[in-house]
Amino acid sequence: MEILILLVVVVVLLFAVPDIRKSLISRPAFAFFKRVLPPLSPTEREAMQAGDTWWDADLFSGRPDWHKFHQTKAPQFTEAEQAFIDNQLETLLGMLDDFKIVQKDVDLPKKVWDYIRKEKFFAMIIGKEFGGLDFSPAANSHIVSRIATRSISAAVSVMVPNSLGPGELLTHYGTDEQKNYWLPRLADGTDIPCFALTGPEAGSDAGAIPDTGVVCKGEFEGKEVVGIRLNWSKRYITLAPVATVLGLAFKMYDPDGLLGEQKDIGITCALIPTSHEGVETGERHLPLNQAFMNGTTYGKDVFIPLDWIIGGQDYAGKGWRMLMECLSAGRGISLPALAAATGHMTERMTGAYAYVRQQFGMPIGLFEGVQAAMGKIGGTNYTLESMRRLTVTALCEGKSPSVITAMTKYHMTEMGRQVMEAAMDVHAGKGIQLGPRNYLGHGYMATPVSITVEGANILTRNLMIFGQGATRCHPYVLAEMEAASNPDEEQGLKQFDSLLLKHISFAAGNFFGSLFMGLTGARFNASPMSGPTARYYQQLTRMSRALALTADMAMLVMGGDLKRREMLSARLGDVLSHLYMASAVLKRYEDDGRQTGDLPFVEYAMSHHLYEIGQAFKGFFANFPNRFISWTLRLAIFPLGLHFNKPSDENMQVIAKQMMEPGLTRDRHTFLCFWKDDPKDMTGHMELAFLAMREHADIYKRIRKAIKRGDIAEDLSGEDLVKAARKAEVISADEAKAFKKTEQLRMAAIGVDQFAPGVIEGRKF
Ligand SMILES: Cc1cc2nc3c(=O)[nH]c(=O)nc-3n(C[C@H](O)[C@H](O)[C@H](O)COP(=O)(O)OP(=O)(O)OC[C@H]3O[C@@H](n4cnc5c(N)ncnc54)[C@H](O)[C@@H]3O)c2cc1C
């Protein structure tokens, strides 16, 4: 007992008396912290400081405030946005024939280019005062998604000027003169922009661009002025082959000190008309056969005036920061929109095809193997749409949440790939044979494009999500890092000392909180909702607390090494991402008015995300180098074992059946998927066959029974089958007509395209 009292006194003295605490705890801890601090490159520091945090910070803190979360309102379209969606967007969709675009012309038809420019599809993010549409991120995302269900090539062409590029950079940083000149021209389609960062030597490591701009004197419009001599070689640049204005990122130097003392100025962005002397554009790449414009741009000793720098001379050297700030918005909209399109389209069309296509005497969607694939599509699409909406909500609130947009881009494009593969498996040959009736093939081929553009996913998962999350979302680490980098050592120590106590009590709370929640199965955690989702909130709060504890311990033990141990840190990033996706699912369920029909989808998504969280922790514990810490964490977080299971077979069967059921749930889950009321159309032929077969399901049932009884011969089809069914008095005359029409639709729907000899070779489609 005496020893215990003595211990308590020592601890109280150590922590409560500032001088003792400072010299015995804070100072050595500060020195340790400085030693293990991940070394940050200037570009990483800028990336880290760019953008905001939002719900990710709550999830990372271990104490998510669910009430606050549910107070955020899902964005609504303005009247102008809704009118555009109902009119211009639908008109454009009706004009798109993706088979011709990709296989014949390898370009959008001129009338489509003209329409896109005239109706300002390129100007969704440009302000009204400059003639743009000034649409919200929600409208932008909806429009790009819906186009992508029709044509990825058209969607990419529209999306690029509306994400990272001259329009966005000018809006945020442009001088008045630049805005007044360029924005109206971009808005009315007079100019087409592109933005060039990537080059042969600089892909993922975009900060390492070798392209240079040297400050010098030169001649511009007949006068000698101070300007920049540029040399660049860029590749993979979307819209470059048709662009009239080039946004260019380069490293700027001032060796002769013409602008001041700083010789190495840093990454800078300029806007250059492609007609300017020395600018070379026009060469095209062929990105997995897609028809959007993508290519190279070069320049050798191209002289430009200083006021072509975006934002003017004041913004020289600030390019990286500008890109990071703008990227985080675009990254949360455009590529996720393509993935959402894949989800909506594959769910709607796979549900239809699985019913229309019959083998072994019944719709293939009734076979359990097919239902597993369908369950995955329907369940994953619920998350895709939920995540799209939640991230867009943050952006509509004016946030620029860099970690959230990184998670959204990575996970949505990855989920897009998974649902696309599942849809291809269900469609089998129908998905493979290209032609006007194939709605999957081009999207399947284009899947890696969205994964690679705006950074590549491996890097996003392994470096960005946890790397930035750990510092941006942690309640203390960023402030501690700032204290550690304070040039005034004593001042830094003072800041650090005040943070340390809070950090220690935060960590202790995480440890004991995790243990308690683990032992009680989180049953005492508060849930903001009652009913079937209440348990999910309890488990998510528990896993959020576990993440806060594990992230702290990982940083404490591994320090800067954690950045290099990407496989470990990525797993913690996965936990954060799945917490975010699961929250998005719960929010959507509430926002949509708790629809009973949604529950199987919610159940799938929640089981999946909790299972993945469990697996990420399991992998982390198995590979964490400090075995003692690893075992302690495992014991604190899963004291009774890890019991999160994958979605059940029954759950997937229910989803599959719902996907084959026409009606409100199907329409609500796939509202972004465009289909045309035309039996010859890419998606229309499947939708019409499906609807007709469902409507006349009873006729099909009676005929099947009659065949079984032997009243109708087994091997009949088409007209012969109709006649036999009439003769056997299984169907009435009116039903015979309806059946005949439905059979024609069914045959068209299970059909694929075939081409006469020479047509494919000569591209004479
Ligand atoms: C169709 C298309 C359109 C594009 N449009 C544009 C555009 O308009 N403007 C523009 O500037 N750029 C554009 N890009 C470039 C795009 O952003 C880059 O392709 C991307 O940043 C990756 O560069 P990379 O392809 O050279 O891959 P690399 O950098 O060669 O990477 C190869 C692999 O290594 C991984 N990797 C690299 N470093 C790490 C690391 N530290 N940790 C873990 N993994 C790592 C990457 O994730 C990737 O999987 C486009 C690309 C494509 C394919």
From TrEMBL:
Q: What is its EC number?
A: 1.3.8.7, 1.3.8.8
What top-level branch of life does the organism fall under?
Bacteria
Domain Acyl-CoA dehydrogenase/oxidase C-terminal: start-end pairs: 317-462
Which BP terms does GO give this entry? fatty acid beta-oxidation using acyl-CoA dehydrogenase
Pathway membership, UniProt: Lipid metabolism; fatty acid beta-oxidation
Instruction: Write out the entry's keywords from A to Z.
Output: FAD, Fatty acid metabolism, Flavoprotein, Lipid metabolism, Oxidoreductase
One GO location term (cellular component): cytoplasm
> Family assignment?
Belongs to the acyl-CoA dehydrogenase family.
Protein name, please?
Acyl-coenzyme A dehydrogenase
What's the source species for this entry? Answer: Pseudidiomarina woesei
